[in-house]
Amino acid sequence: MLADRSEAEDVTQETFLRAWKALPGWEPRAKFSTWLHRVALNLCYDRLRKRKESLPGDLPDHADTRLAPHDALDQVQRVTAIEVAIGALPERQSAALTLCALQGHSQAEAAEILEVSVEALESLLARARRTLRAQLLEGRTSS
Amino acid sequence: MTEDRLIELIEAWGADPSAFPEAERAGAKALLAAQPERFAHALGEARALDAAFACMPDIVPSPALTEALITSAPKPKAAAGGFRLPKFAPWAPASGFAALAAGLFMGVMMAPVASASSYTDEVETVLEQALGYDLAALTEELVQ
């Protein structure tokens, strides 16, 4: 979600520190891994909001995130394009896509982590994929 | 299962029907088999996105991060009285802890893992060992 290794390490450490503090009083109302993901997700949201607040007002409309044709594909560019496109999604759509399409969580797990219904999760995913389809695949067939 | 609903499923969950909600999976498969050409375009676009996600590389947390997490973990302490609640066991299952850290880190970094279910199972195992009791069994005991 953060697409920044240093920040991701910070968030991972902070998540575990909170886990260690919570463990002695832990009550098994939910799967611990679900709770852990929620903590990490909220920390990511905080970071993303701080990034937005610190960004200058005038940004380019959008970077060119179209994927190159496969035969001319540069893997680094391809991965970067996907990261940029996912990073530009609204945060809840980005989180839903990360949990389901990238991490492979089940619908129930992802919905529980995001604290939404499976129907709402589906809506988030559909909107995310629609945006990515337009950004990543647009013009691919004509190039 | 209607055609419109199947298009919605493909657009949300991707081209693989096994990713669709279980209750709608069989109906979706039947409709796909009956009218493959009707959904070819939607499936093609969904497959292209699925392939893009699949090309994302694995991200491995650094040894320094793993070490820092282990160091920050609570140390084992004796259980009080006869009740067997929080009794921290040593962090013996290094592979499980690595899965716990790696899975979460990869989620934060946004990279795929092969099997989230095996990962979460392993996470639960690690946490159960850390807590010193079986979460599911304890829940059943408390309910009874």
Q: What report would you give on this structure?
A:
The complex is a heterodimer of chains A (143) and B (144). Chain A has 143 residues and is mainly α. In chain A, 66% of the residues lie in helices and 0% in strands. Chain A has six helices and no strands. Chain A starts with a helix and ends in a 6-residue tail after the last helix. The model of chain A is unreliable at 58-62 (pLDDT under 50). With 144 residues, chain B is mostly helical. In chain B, 62% of the residues lie in helices and 0% in strands. Chain B has seven helices and no strands. Chains A and B meet through α1, α2, α3, α4 and α6 of A and α1, α3, α4, α5 and α6 of B.
- Between the first and last Cα atoms of chain A, what is the distance in angstroms? 29 Å
What is the radius of gyration of chain B computed over CA atoms, rounded to a whole number of angstroms?
22 Å
Q: In percent, how much strand structure appears in the residues of chain B?
A: under 5%
Estimate the helix proportion of chain A, in percent. Answer: 55-70%
**Could you say which structural class the secondary elements and strand pairing of chain A correspond to?**
mainly alpha
- What pattern of helices and strands is seen along the backbone of chain B? HHHHHHH
Number of helices of chain B: 7
Q: Which blocks of ≥5 consecutive residues of chain A have pLDDT under 50?
A: 58-62
Mean pLDDT of chain A: 81
Mean pLDDT over the full residue set of chain B: 72
Number of strands of chain A: 0
Tell me roughly what share of residues is in helical segments of chain B.
55-70%
- Straight-line distance between termini of chain B: 42 Å
Strand-residue fraction of chain A? under 5%
